[in-house]
Specification:
The complex is a heterodimer of chains A (about 110) and B (about 110). By secondary structure, chain A is mainly beta. Chain A is built from no helices and eleven strands. The model of chain A has no long low-confidence stretch (mean pLDDT about 95). Classes of the chains: A mainly beta (about 110), B mainly beta (about 110).
Chain lengths: ~110, ~110
């Protein structure tokens, strides 16, 4: 069966510090991968998606970037965090045009 | 632009009191409508996918239905363990390469014993 892992679960970072969140998927190959952000009072917003190694598309302009160095690894990064980057970050995977399955999420607080 | 509106924002029911959650959507060609359950501090858990108007799916006390403009999640005789936030999302047929979902803000459901 397939599983998706995200870490860390919780992160508190000062403004201006770098960020690296990691997501890995097990039990499948060549999955579509996604990063979403869930802010208080708002729905989940798609940030990035990837259909293969090195292929990243951004849905919204922002202070964040994503990379996919391996088939089942997806990384969310920032060089300098802003207060507005706080939120609940979720990684998801799917087969193409299929159900998306989510990880447990990372709660990021930027102070 | 695809949009999803869920109502009510919050709903408090007594155990055993049946009700329905609403998800209204506008999308340029619907590929699928998805329902998820999200517990506090956790990732969304998949419940149902609906693809065409008139389709219905059931799982335990939950039943999801779909029309051309909205979807309902019916909860029959709920139990306290059904308390969660229920999320509705749509996937457009022409996603421009992204299979990304457009989510509503969710309905926060509380079932009191």
């Amino acid at each position: 069966s397939q599983t998706i892992h995200q870490w860390p679960a919780t992160l508190v970072q000062p403004v201006g510090s770098p960020l690296s969140l990691e997501c890995t998927v097990e039990g499948t190959s060549n999955p579509n991968l996604y990063w979403y952000r869930q802010a208080a009072g708002r729905g989940l917003q798609l940030l990035f998606y990837s259909v293969g190694i090195g292929q990243i598309s951004s849905e919204v302009p922002q202070n964040l970037s994503a990379s996919r160095p391996q088939d089942r690894q997806f990384i969310l990064s920032s060089k300098k965090l802003l207060l507005s980057d706080s939120g609940f970050y979720l990684c998801a995977w799917s087969r193409p045009r299929n159900i998306q399955y989510f990880g447990a999420g990372t709660r990021l607080s930027v102070l | 632009e695809d949009q999803v509106t869920q109502s009510p924002e919050a709903l408090r029911l007594q155990e055993g009191e049946s009700s329905s959650l609403n998800c209204s959507y506008t999308v340029s060609g619907l590929r699928g409508l998805f329902w998820y359950r999200q517990d506090p501090g956790k990732g969304p858990e998949f419940l149902f996918t609906l693809y065409s108007a008139g389709e219905e799916k059931e799982k335990e006390r939950l039943k999801a239905t779909l029309t051309k403009k909205e979807s309902f999640l019916h909860i029959t005789a709920p139990k306290p363990e059904d308390s969660a936030t229920y999320l509705c999302a749509v996937q457009a047929r022409e996603g421009g390469g992204a299979d990304g979902l457009t989510f509503g803000k969710g309905t926060h459901l509380i079932i009191q014993p």
